[in-house]
Design a protein that fits this description.
12 helices, alpha+beta, 3 domains, 55% helix, Butyryl-CoA Dehydrogenase, subunit A, domain 3
Length: 362
């Protein structure tokens, strides 16, 4: 039995990679990270023209109506190209939350506007995933108070989707009265994160999220698998760069790729990463087809790729020697992206604990 990406999924991946190769080189990423963040809008606009915004939106609302495995394939390509664009929050988690938690009217309004590119969401589920001190989200009489941190895809977002600790999901516009957005600086300069403060902000409740935990959990599960795929793509690119460098860099009159120690490092990275492909793809398949296994597999793939990605990032940098730490080479953009992916939507330790609870081991 063959289990892998279809020709259509691979074709979409290649189109994404080609676009990023042509429009988001390391030099462009460096400019975005330092003094020209406006270049990010052009790249995101180009990727939207390729259809990344409407992958998971059903055809009846103007989208492509594809499955999560397709979105995961795209996320893998975006990680490979360290794409400075919104995706996991805006175009994976938000559509899944609306599909599972919204009323018919809410689906018609929001999914149609996502597919047409009229709106894009920032997503703040930190209160539900792991509440922090002074970050409680309180909903009362149609108004929201509190603070959400590490809100995903916050730059250029027109709307925000936020959850309280019970799993209720609320939507409002980013320019709502009483809403304050503060940019958060992280080591990953390819994506945007914010702290959003609510003070008597009028919000809309996703109708089906008030009685069930499944809408937000399905959204988080999909987000975790998409992040795992992003890490997978970034880690593979770091391996590719390490192998290429080892074939060119010479020491003692020989290319370093001929040294046994370097060979072993490259082989270990490839051997560790290869099984992650099937794991991530299977996790995406379970989200669409095997609901009983979906949450466990999303936790498993997120935690495992986080650990493997961390090891690959370290070894790939070591293969490059001192050059691996320079801004000139730009390897650190992939390194830092993998590091931030490790923490988003739950660090490996937290996600493993969830998986253990699902299996009733604790």
């Amino acid at each position: 039995m063959y289990f892998g990406l279809s020709e259509d999924q691979e074709f979409f991946q290649e189109n994404i990679k080609k676009f990023l190769d042509d429009n988001a080189s390391v030099d462009i990423i460096r400019k975005i990270a330092t003094d020209q963040p406006e270049l990010q809008k052009d790249i995101q606009g180009g990727l939207i023209s390729l259809g990344i915004n409407n992958l998971l939106v059903p055809e009846e609302y103007g989208g492509l109506g594809l499955d999560i495995l397709f979105a995961v394939a795209v996320s893998q390509a975006l990680g490979s190209g360290i794409a400075p664009t919104a995706f996991v929050g805006s175009y994976v988690m938000a559509p899944i939350a609306i599909l599972n938690g919204g009323s018919e009217d809410q689906k018609k309004i929001y999914l149609s506007d996502i597919a047409s590119g009229k709106i894009n969401f920032a997503v703040g589920f930190s209160e539900f995933i792991g509440a922090r001190e002074d970050c409680e989200i309180v909903y009362d009489n149609g108004k929201l108070n509190g603070r959400s941190i590490f809100v995903l895809d916050s730059n250029n977002a027109s709307h925000i989707m936020v959850a309280d600790k019970s799993g209720k999901i609320f939507i409002t516009t980013m320019d709502s009265k009483g809403l304050t957005r503060n940019h958060l600086t992280t080591v990953d300069k390819t994506r945007s994160f914010s702290e959003v403060i609510f003070k008597d902000v009028e919000v809309e409740l996703l109708e089906k999220s008030k009685d069930a935990i499944s809408p937000i959990q399905k959204s988080i599960d999909a987000g975790r698998v998409a992040l795992a795929a992003d890490t997978l793509g970034a880690a593979q690119e770091m391996i590719n760069k390490a192998v290429e460098y080892s074939k060119e860099r010479k020491q003692f009159g020989r290319v370093i790729g001929s040294f046994q120690a370097v060979k072993h490092m490259c082989a270990e990275m490839a051997a560790d990463l290869e099984p992650c492909y099937a794991m991530v793809w299977h996790a995406a398949h379970c989200l669409d087809e095997e609901e009983e296994e979906s949450r466990f597999m999303s936790c498993h793939s997120k935690a495992h790729t986080a650990e493997v990605g961390k090891a690959v990032a370290k070894k790939a940098t070591e293969v490059h020697g001192g050059m691996g730490f320079t801004d000139l080479l730009g390897l650190h953009y992939w390194f830092k992206r993998i590091g931030v992916n490790r923490q988003l939507l739950g660090a490996p330790e937290m996600v493993r604990e969830e998986a253990a609870k699902i299996q009733k081991l604790i």
